[in-house]
Amino acid sequence: MHEAIEDLLADYAEAIDDGALERWPGFFAEDGEYQIITRESHEAGLPVGIMYCGSRGMMEDRVQALRTANIYEPHTYRHLLARPRIQRSAEGFAVRSNLCVFRIAQDGETVVFATGRYLDRIVEDGAALRFRSRQVVLDSRRIDILLVLPL
Amino acid sequence: MHEAIEDLLADYAEAIDDGALERWPGFFAEDGEYQIITRESHEAGLPVGIMYCGSRGMMEDRVQALRTANIYEPHTYRHLLARPRIQRSAEGFAVRSNLCVFRIAQDGETVVFATGRYLDRIVEDGAALRFRSRQVVLDSRRIDILLVLPL
Amino acid sequence: MHEAIEDLLADYAEAIDDGALERWPGFFAEDGEYQIITRESHEAGLPVGIMYCGSRGMMEDRVQALRTANIYEPHTYRHLLARPRIQRSAEGFAVRSNLCVFRIAQDGETVVFATGRYLDRIVEDGAALRFRSRQVVLDSRRIDILLVLPL
Asked: Which of C68, B135, B115 is nearest to A113 (CA)?
């Protein structure tokens, strides 16, 4: 199962890095949750995040908006994940992995865009593994105005 | 086999990072190919790369030239690879892994030198695993003049 | 055993990144050694490091000092490790892994703080795996004045 979970995490990163945003909602259970939050808010127990989607439908809307409005400066991401730590839980698996995301602007400029942790709850959803919830806990409180794509 | 492939990828990175360039051609099959290309060219199907070697002999020549001419400002690399995604193919394995390479100048300055993907075709070559081809697809179109060492 | 060693490495990184410094000495054998050294000194065979602790007791003292004096500008780390290369040795395992550590200042500024290698000797210490020695070989000779936390 460790292998299958690692493949899910790598596949997710691949979809985002490839710009295949339409694949993004499919990594989540139907009522799956996605949240980006700062470490500071997370440790203070504040529920207010930077980005929140409470269902696959909300994620699809978000992708649709990104594709339609297209107001953001074009850029791509490159994810690097460290080995995940996996614990069995009542409903599936609690998974944590360190991450770094680089952002590459259209002119080629590359910056360390975000570092932090993924805190995931992963469940067996039929034959597939999917996120019941995925929380991206960012180390930095500096939130870039360009945070429009999911991490 | 997953383990053996991951060891090959890590050993390759180790050789480059250690500056053991003479080990580099040995990671490839006799008629192995090595190419560095931008994402832009790769997606446009343009075959023109930034660096290309079409055989182990060409790689040996390149190493020889680097050792002899020694025209470049001394620096070292540090590779970080994410978990590879591995698929069996007719002739062996198709492998993809995200990568980041840091460059450390002699005065100690450290920069994110390159991010991107390795797209590898790996074959069993006698008792060893070797690259039939290794393509380094760089995210950025900004090609540094200091790109003289293989990635 | 490969899995257990990888879990040890990830758990260590997690403890430091979480700021749980009190957990740090427990990753080492009673007479375990910890050293941070530059690549330059390491390759020259110079034993002089940037930080050295020769026992778990010395590590506990160091943590105590950090907690009490609190003279440093608050910051956190984020570790990213590549897959380790593991070799059996007479007394346990010789393990090497590439690493990058990002430093996040309180105002959110994130920098590539250090790149290099962990060179570890890991032993079975009762039921647990622990470091007999852990050497952090830094690529850069620029040693930041903020290097007060263990890497």
From this structure: B115
pLDDT score recorded for residue A50: 87
Query: And the tokens for C141?
Result: 């000779």
The domain defined by A2-138 folds into: Nuclear Transport Factor 2; Chain: A, (3.10.450)
d(CA C81, CA B83): 11
Say which residue the tokens 């990568």 belong to.
B99
Distance in Å, alpha carbon of A45 to nearest chain B alpha carbon? 31
Closest chain A residue to B3 measured between Cα atoms?
A3
Best CA proximity match to C79, nearest among C138, C3, C151 = C151
pLDDT of residue B126: 87
**Are the Cβ atoms of B141 and A108 closer than 8 angstroms?**
yes
| 8 Å CB contact of B79 and C82 | yes
Domains in chain A: boundaries: 2-138
pLDDT tens-place string over residues A17-30: 999 999 999 999 99
Residue C115 contacts residue C139 (beta carbons within 8 Å): yes
Given an 8 Å threshold on Cβ–Cβ distance, is A83 in contact with C81?
A: yes
- For chain B, list residues whose CB is within 8 angstroms of any CB belonging to chain C: 3, 6-7, 9-11, 13-14, 17, 76, 78-81, 83, 100, 102, 104, 107-112
From CA B145, how far away is CA A76, in angstroms rounded?
23
Q: Give the one of A2, A98, A140 whose C-beta lies nearest to C110's C-beta.
A: A140
Q: What is the pLDDT along chain A (151 residues), one digit of tens a residue?
A: 889 999 999 999 999 999 999 999 999 999 999 999 999 999 998 887 889 999 999 999 999 988 887 666 788 999 999 999 999 998 999 999 999 999 999 888 899 999 999 999 999 988 899 999 999 999 998 876 667 789 9
Q: Please state the φ and ψ torsions of residue C3, each to the nearest 5 degrees.
A: -60, -45
**Predicted TM-score (pTM) of this structure:** 0.92
User: Cβ contacts of residue C122 below 8 Å, gap of 6+?
Assistant: C5, C8, C92, C93, C95, C129, C130, C131, C132
- Helical H runs in A44-118? 56-69
Which residues of chain B are within 8 Å of residue C84 when distances are taken between CB atoms? 10
Tally of CB atoms within 10 A around C42: 19
Angstroms from C27 CA to nearest CA on chain B? 24
Q: Which helix (H) or strand (E) holds C85?
A: strand C85-88
Average pLDDT over residues B39-67: 91
Provide CB contacts within 8 A for B114, sequence distance 6+.
B99, B100, B101, B136, B138, B139, B140, B151
